[in-house]
Amino acid sequence: MDTEHGTGSDTFSGRIPSQQPIYKPTVEAYNEWAATYDTDGNFLLALDTIMMDEIVPSLLDVLPPAPKLIELGCGTGRNTVRLQGVPSASIWALDNSQGMLQVAMDRCRSMRESVPDANKAESLEFALRDILCFHETKSTWDPMKNADAIISTLVLEHIPLEQFFTVCSKLLRPGGHLLCTNMHSDMGAISQAGFVDPVTGTKIRALSYAHTVQEFLTCARTWNFTLLWGPVERKVETSDLAKLGDRGRKWVGINAWFGAILKKLG
Length: 266
Fold this sequence. Notes:
Number of helices: 8
Distance between the termini: 47 Å
Oligomer: single chain
Structural class: alpha/beta
Number of strands: 10
Order of helices and strands: EHHEHEHEEHEHEEHEHE
Strand content: 25-35%
Radius of gyration: 18 Å
């Protein structure tokens, strides 16, 4: 059974994909995936975009004027483009993959001029940062500290919960907010992030964790976060397929996504 939620067509250049996946370090895998990440039929990406349309207004409602925002794992800039429309915001878009960052920078640069001046962010800075190396690179994170909000979508799958909340707690000001989405553990039990190399047909996977919603909330409370919105657990419905594409069909009836907004206390 093909379990990668990110792969596109099953044949490339006449090659038949290898049935045995190759596991690679997360950074290496995403550097290779960057060129096709937005176009390879990743239904979870499409579902996350749909759900972000619902969540983001709830986050914006609680932000102060001219907020300082961090996108933790900006990927190819799918949500960074959206954040460019937060008036007077100061934005840090971070990722551990140079390949993904380059796509994000090109994408945002090309779309920035289309944002009306009255709705335009004050600044947008891209930086290469790895959550897993936070303790070894602490000083390089100093400019991002005291943020009003962190947005992190479909990143947590690759990070131990304790490490994720350590970084979020260090970067947010007291009273700051965390919007987090992730692959649901029901899906994670049978799938993980990966893609098919368009040249060799080889399945590539990165290290993944199937965090449950309860584990997520328990760790959040340990780090002094309280729940503001959600958690919402989202199944794939037949009615979604027109937007998610045919690769979402085998996931109908299965929880594939969860999301929540948390507030850092004290």
